[in-house]
Amino acid sequence: MTEPQFHPPAKRLTVADIAALAGVEAPSDARAVTGIAALDHAGPNDLAFLDNPNYADQLATTHAGICLVPLRFADKTPAGTIAIATAQPYRVFVAAVSRMYPGALKPSTIDGSDGVAQNARVHPTVRLEKGVRVEAGAVIGPHCEIGSGTQIAAGATIGPHVRIGRDCSIGAAATLTHALIGDRVIIHPGVRIGQDGFGYLMGPKKHEKVPQVGRVIVQDNVEIGANTTIDRGASRDTMIGEGTKIDNLVQIGHNCIIGRHCVIVAQTGISGSSTLEDHVVLGARVGVNNHVTIGEGAQIAAVSVVHGDVPPGARWGGTPAKPVRLWFREMKLLEQLARKGSQDKSDPGTEDS
Predict the structure, then answer these.
(1) What is the per-residue DSSP string for 256-290?
(2) Residue ranges of domains in the chain
(3) CATH tag, 13-105
(4) Does the annotation mark 254 as catalytic?
(5) pLDDT by residue (tens digit) across 161-185?
(6) Among 123, 254, 261, 291, which one carries the catalytic annotation?
């Protein structure tokens, strides 16, 4: 069985190219790289980087052709490797990889077809701008509008009246209804946007369903990870702000307002009518209660549960979430109490009450 090339490099980068990305003077060497690799697996044709000093021992034995390193490690690179010293090795590495593998920046097409596939179902009232790609098995409902350069992958379903901007990527088997999508939005496979929010009027004999008549509005440059769900609003629109990045398997409830440039990591659940102001970061598996506001620039540690409002710029963690310094003190105190309890029980002079 042959080994496939899922991400063939689009171009080779020279030492001068990479030095330019780092904003430093290029070494006098004409060497170029055609791939990337970790320090311990890199070969002469690869670009590698060192960002974490814990991996400094791998730098001493790397075979990488070019390596981006912090300034203090510039003289610790093996003789066969060209070192490019920069204050931000990983940031420069990402810029280089983006140039070498531009196709990896958004989901690739499934069947590789151009235009509208013969077996895609596009309603006659749909308006497609020039350069839209619709793959096999995709369904686009009546009165949709889709901007130029957008690709709709195989099996995706776009509901009636949905608007999708330009240069977007809608992943395989994704479902979009009751939604307005901005430009350059990446929606990965299996995403569900615009379905009913979970709303019921509880009663002793039965629970009455509350109509969900809002929309989902996704602004420009948002990325939404695989199998994430974003419910449409009930009494107001659910909003995802410009530049926000959402990981896989995230649940965002109805009426939520997510600000600009937020980061929401995998398996986080945000209950209905909550608000994240701009630049909020939620670690993996965070739970946010309903009607909570998390202030601008706040950060919530992974596996925390937020029950009340969080002030701007705060760093909270724990269950329930609280300022991290208080949380750490509590954990330390509990550890000390637990150790003391264990020691007391192991003392033969201690009697059970």
Answers:
(1) -EE-TT-EE-TT-EE-TT-EE-TT-EE-TT-EE-T
(2) 13-105
(3) 3.40.1390.10
(4) yes
(5) 999 999 999 999 999 999 999 999 9
(6) 254
